[in-house]
Structure formats: C-alpha cells, structure tokens
Design a protein that fits this description.
six-stranded parallel beta sheet; two-stranded antiparallel sheet; Rossmann fold; alpha/beta
Length: about 220
C-alpha cells in the first residue's frame, strides 16, 4: 500500500497534478510580464498553484486593475492550450474512482479548467471547486474545506494530491493528508509527505474502509 490508511475522498489539484500546463501557462504569463516590465525568469515561479488575481495583486503594480488583468490573462490561457497534456496515468486512475468520492480543487477559473482538461483528454468531474468558488485562494485552506463539505466528508478524512507549495500549505491548513505529485518538478522537493512521480503503476483500492492507493 502507498497509504497506510483509507480515506473518505480524494481531492486533486489540477495543474501540475492531473495535467501539465507549464509550457502554455508560462507562454501567456511571459508575454504579460514583459509588457509590464517584469523580470520574466524571476516572476514565472510565482504564478504556479495560486489564483491569477492573487498573483497580480501581490505585485502591487501602479495603474494595474487586478480584476481586469486577471480576466484578460485567463482568456488568453483559455485560448492557448497548446502543449497541455495529461500527467501519465491520471485518466485511468480517475476513471477507477467512484465519481461521488473525489473532486478537482483548482486555482483556475472554471472556463480555464474546462479548456485544459479537454486539451489533456480528461473528463470534467461532477465535483469541482474553482477560483470563483472561494474568496481566498491557496495557500488558504478554503478551497479544500469547501470541496470536503460538498462531498459530505471532513477534511481530515481526505487525501489531497498536490504539486505546488501553495496548494500543499492549503491542504495542510485544512487538516488533510497530502500526496505530492512531482511530475512537473525540476528539482527534488523536500517534503514530509508521500510523493509520486505520476500515476503509472498505481491503482485505487475501494472497499468498506474507504479509498486507498496500491502499487501494481
């Protein structure tokens, strides 16, 4: 077993966890950063795992309307999904889960989530929490707390699949267990949590005790 316990539900981040959108996202954000005179290489690492509007707000750029800029960037990302692809094994793993026992919890708006999931060949789940559903994005735990509530479970009985520091912090703050997906990591991550490179060679265990993970 990859997990030493069973869980009531699985909660999945999207970008970097179920699909790889780094090339597309950084293409859009690089153009925006250049337009605003930012150092692109320094700026790009800050965009991952957090809501678009929070990224812009944190910059405190003079004369920039965060809501208007976030809407424009989100539309640009919807229009550009070239190079978005599934993290290996994700579709198979998701298909093996009872649909009412898992959710996607993403910092992306719903329209962007739909576009990227379609580009990666993944189905839109019946349960999804997006940036529009919470007033505070990751690393606030609000999104994971809401997902657990919608699924009718408590956060401590959930296993969260995450890749980014902000998302991991949000899951920890919610009181959930964490599995870190390292498919898009360029460097080894120092973490106390379990890690998976991707979902190949991993299967879901569903029994009376709940959901678990097993290597095959």
């Amino acid at each position: 077993m990859l997990t030493n316990r069973r869980f009531a539900a699985f909660l999945f981040d999207m970008d970097g966890t179920l699909l790889n959108s780094i090339v597309a996202a950084e293409r859009v954000w690089s153009h925006w950063a250049q337009k605003h005179g930012l150092d692109v290489m320094t700026f790009l690492p800050t965009i991952h795992g957090v809501r678009c509007i929070d990224t812009i707000r944190n910059l405190n750029l003079a004369g920039v309307d965060p809501e208007r800029e976030a809407a424009a960037i989100s539309q640009a990302e919807i229009d550009d999904v070239q190079g978005v692809f599934e993290v290996p094994g994700a579709a198979r793993l998701l298909a093996s889960l009872p649909p009412e026992r898992w959710a996607i919890v993403t910092s992306a708006p719903l329209a962007l989530a739909e576009a990227r999931l379609k580009a990666a060949g993944l189905e839109l789940p019946i349960n999804i929490v997006t940036s529009e559903d919470v007033s505070q994005g990751k690393p606030s735990p609000d999104c994971f707390l809401l997902a657990a509530k919608r699924l009718g479970v408590v956060p401590k009985d959930c296993l969260v699949f995450e890749d980014a520091p902000a998302g991991i912090a949000a899951a920890e703050a919610a009181g959930a267990s964490v599995m870190v997906i390292t498919a898009t990591h360029g460097h080894e991550l120092d973490t106390p949590h379990g890690t998976l490179a991707n979902y190949e060679g991993v299967t879901v265990v569903v029994d009376a005790e709940g959901l678990g993970l097993m290597r095959v």
